[in-house]
Amino acid sequence: MAVKIRLKRLGKIRAPYYRIVVADSRTKRDGRVIEEIGKYHPTENPSFIEVDSDRAQYWLSVGAQPTEQVTAILKLTGDWGKFKGDKDAKSTVQVAEAKAAFVADESKKPVLKPKAEKPAKAEEAPAEAADADETTTDEA
User: Fold this and answer.
1) pLDDT at site 130
2) Helix (H, G, I), strand (E, B), or coil: what is residue 77?
3) 78: number of Cβ within 10 Å
4) Dihedral (CA of 99, 104, 107, 109) sign
5) What domains can be seen in the chain, in order of their start residue?
6) Which 3 state secondary structure label does DSSP give 103?
7) Is there a contact between 34 and 22 (Cβ–Cβ < 8 Å)?
8) Cα–Cα distance for residue pair 79/88, rounded to 1 Å
9) Helices 53-61 & 68-77, crossing angle to 10 degrees?
10) Do the Cβ atoms of 93 and 76 come closer than 8 Å?
11) Using CA atoms, how far apart are residues 15 and 127, in angstroms rounded to an integer?
C-alpha cells in the first residue's frame, strides 16, 4: 500500500483550512485517512502551521511520501531536515503575536448609566451649573 502525507481540505468556499494527514494514495482528497498529524491555516496572517513532529518523523521513516505542499510545510517546521539527517534543523514558522489585553479608558465617562441615577442627576445638574457660574463671577 502506497502511503502519502498530504493535505485534507476543510472550510468554506474561499476560506480554506487544511489538516495534514497520512492516507492511502488511492483514496479521495478528503476521504478516509489513516492519521491526522497536523493543521495548516493559510488565510491567517501569518499562516498557522502545527505539526506533530514525532508522528511526522515516524511516517517519513516507514516510507510515507509527502506531497509538494506538505514537503514545503515540513521544511518550514524543520521536520524534513531532521528526516534527512540535519541535526541542526530548526523551525522557521512565524508565530502570531498575542493580542494585547483590553484596558478600559478611565478618563472617559461610562456609556451605560443606572436608571435610578438619571432623575437625581437631572435635578442636581442645574444647581451645579448655577454654583459654577457664581464661582466664575467671584474670581473675576
Assistant:
1) 58
2) helix
3) 18
4) positive
5) 3-84 (3.30.1320.10)
6) coil
7) yes
8) 11
9) 130
10) yes
11) 59
Q: How far apart are CA 117 and CA 93, in angstroms?
A: 54
Q: What is the pTM (predicted TM-score) of this model?
A: 0.65
Q: What is the mean pLDDT of each run of 10 residues along the chain (140 residues)?
A: 90 93 90 91 88 90 92 89 80 78 81 64 57 58
C-beta separation of 96 from 90 below 8 A:
no
> CA distances (Å), 101 to each of 45, 46, 98, 104, in order?
20, 20, 9, 10
79: helix, strand or coil: helix
Residues 67/58/37/52 CA torsion (nearest 10 deg)? -120
Give the E-state strand segments of the chain in sequence order. Answer: 3-12, 15-24, 35-41, 48-51, 65-66
Instruction: Select from 24, 29, 32 the least CA-distant residue to 3.
Output: 24
